[in-house]
Amino acid sequence: MQHLLSAADLSTEEAVLILDTAAQLAEVTDRSVKKLPTLRGRTVVNLFFEDSTRTRISFEVAAKRLSADVINFAAKGSSLSKGESLKDTALTLEAMGADAVVIRHGASGAPHRLAASSWTGCSVINAGDGTHEHPTQALLDAYTIRRHLAGGTGDLSGLSVAIVGDILHSRVARSNVLLLKTLGASVTVVAPPTLLPYGVDSWPCSVSYDIDSVLPQVDAVMMLRVQAERMQAAFFPSALEYSRLYGLDSDRFTLLPDHAIVLHPGPMNRGMEISADVADETRSVIVEQVANGVSVRMAVLYLLLGGMAEVE
Amino acid sequence: MSSQVLKSVHPFGEEAVDIVIDDGLIVAIVAPGSGVGDVIFECADLIALPGFVDLHTHLREPGREDAETILTGSQAAALGGFTCVHAMANTSPVADTAGVVEQVWRRGIETGLVNIRPVGAVTVGLAGKQLAELGAMAQSAALVRVFSDDGKCVHDPLLMRRALEYVKAFDGVVAQHAQDPRLTEDAQMNEGVLSGQLGLAGWPAVAEESIIARDVLLAKHVGSRLHVCHLSTAGSVDVIRWAKARGINVTAEVAPHHLLLTEDLVASYDPMYKVNPPLRRLDDVTALRQAVADGTVDIIATDHAPHPHEDKDCEWAAAAMGMLGLETAFSIALLTLVEPGLLTWRELADRMSIAPAKIGRVSDQGRDLAVGEPANITVVNPRARTVVDPTRMASKSRNTPYAGMELPGQVMHVFYSGRCTVRDGELA
């Protein structure tokens, strides 16, 4: 595997290997010296055409813990805004000797273009492209679910996960549906019909418009951020109505089985898709997801750049 | 001008004859071997057709000479077997005044490779707010008969009604780019299962079909002539078929790429496949081929849309929409329509020459191959197979979606008003 562009690129074995590797690497985080020499002398570029401080920092910490040199390249707008073009940026990074490019881009497919073009020979890691995919987010979600509900090993067979919110525009949802399916979990996406993509009935998941009927059946529920701008575009009548019909508040939380956990990729709109009370619940694992993100991204960098040798 | 003889050529794929051209006209059609003239073209096993007429070409001049010029576009047209092209109005400045259309028309005459018929904009600046001076363009030296805001839809129903009515005064036609703008905001590809997976905003078929449905009803109501550009969906075919069955005066075109390519190509995120209207499903391709065969779709029009390399060598969302078409149109028509038995050679001549000339009211084009007719003739070799090489194209741009594909058919010789513009597949 040279690139990580889509969660669909991963076989069950590869996905489990990444999660297992992440678990081993997580132990590094518990040491007093949080560093491995594995990627010493390798250069990882964080190429962010969209602001995302959280994801960028997560990749940066992951690369640094593996002793890679890290360059943060915040491109001032994409070629869409007549800034520096993706191609010229890629050529520049190639000339500087980058080994891996972690790319966040507002245009769906931009990482695919980068990987398929002759612009660069680097490994390309998709850190979120438009409304397409965000595979490392799905990996960290799967890692978190596995830790809590599957004993921290193997796949996610037999588990049931609901993804609630703006499925239409969510790269997190797309990657999660694909990866959770690969790992053996059953997935239900829940949203008003306007926020489900055309053709969702052919996705490898169930579809529901009714969160209350789904929550009692699931082991984990993932709440997606809903952008206020969707309201202006008539996807739903008002923030209040959305929150009333699809928000996870304390009352709805009681519908979940006692063992079920709550995930959110962040940043949260407290009071919109999730109430503050639920966000701060002990069964809400949102802060832990952030920590797991570092381990999973270490594993991806390690496996793409360092090869398959055993972790020391 | 010296006389020219096409030796043993098969008009419309029928019995071999010698065709003698002199002074811009076909002066004799005689038994093979008996034609006499100064310049001889050996045409054994080749097929003669009336020169192709394109109702939908973007020549980009004035304004985007980095993408194409009237000269390079004319060269591409000639090499593609065309003797007449209609130059779309979305130039800079927009062809919305008599001055601009006359400039394009004059440059066409100076270039002399094809008959360039300017298309006039329907609305000022293609802005969809106010009718352009359609009458002035019609009465200009360019004699504009086709009016289109192509690239943009004349969305305002009242404005569309007025345009349809107004052009009746000079036997004009409104060529509509059928695309509901609200239903296609930020749209990137055909809306379907694949657009959902790829995370690209969908371009629903209904955005095209609903405008066509409205327009055929308007055309019926005001008794006008309507032409619909680049049909891309099976549903659009149904609407046109419905309208024609009711005697509505509507004609329709399909672009070659919509007869061959499907949306699956978009999964590569290669912007070479980004086009307006978007590539659709296989069912749509099949319906469009059938519609050309049964005459529901009247013509093949290239929608030749050159773009400079930088506008395609980028991420999908940033890329320009459009594909080259002039130099490959015949091969695609051969591959998708003639070879599968959907069209005879005479029917192909109708779809690519006779019918488009009628719609555009180009009186000396799209004529029969007969003594006394203007010598606009394209001679093709249906058995040749060539691999498409963008670097060998005459167009100034390289955005062909067929690069590397082996396509059937080759345009061998082209005569425009008796002048040989292409000989042995090269510009003469």
Task: Describe, in plain words, how this protein is organized in 3D.
- The complex is a heterodimer of chains A (312) and B (428).
- Chain A is α/β, with parallel strands linked by helices.
- Chain A is built from twelve helices and nine strands.
- Chain A has two domains: 144 residues, 3-Layer(aba) Sandwich (Rossmann fold); 152 residues, Rossmann fold, CATH 3.40.50.
- In chain A, the strands form two sheets. In chain A, strands 7-6-5-8-9 form a five-stranded parallel sheet, covered by helices on one side. Chain A has a four-stranded parallel sheet with strand order 2-1-3-4, sandwiched between helices.
- In chain A, helix 2 crosses helix 12.
- Chain A is globular.
- The two termini of chain A are 21 Å apart.
- The C terminus of chain A is likely disordered.
- The two termini of chain B are 15 Å apart.
- Helix content of chain B is 27%, strand content 22%.
- In chain B, strands 1, 2, 3, 4, 5, 16, 17, 18 and 19 form a nine-stranded mixed sheet that branches. A five-stranded parallel sheet of chain B has the order 9-10-13-14-15. In chain B, strands 6-7-8 form a three-stranded parallel sheet.
- Chain B has 428 residues and is of the alpha/beta class.
- In chain B, helix 4 crosses helix 6 and helix 6 packs parallel to helix 7.
- The chains are: A alpha/beta (312), B alpha/beta (428).
- Chains A and B meet through helix 4 of A and helix 5 of B.
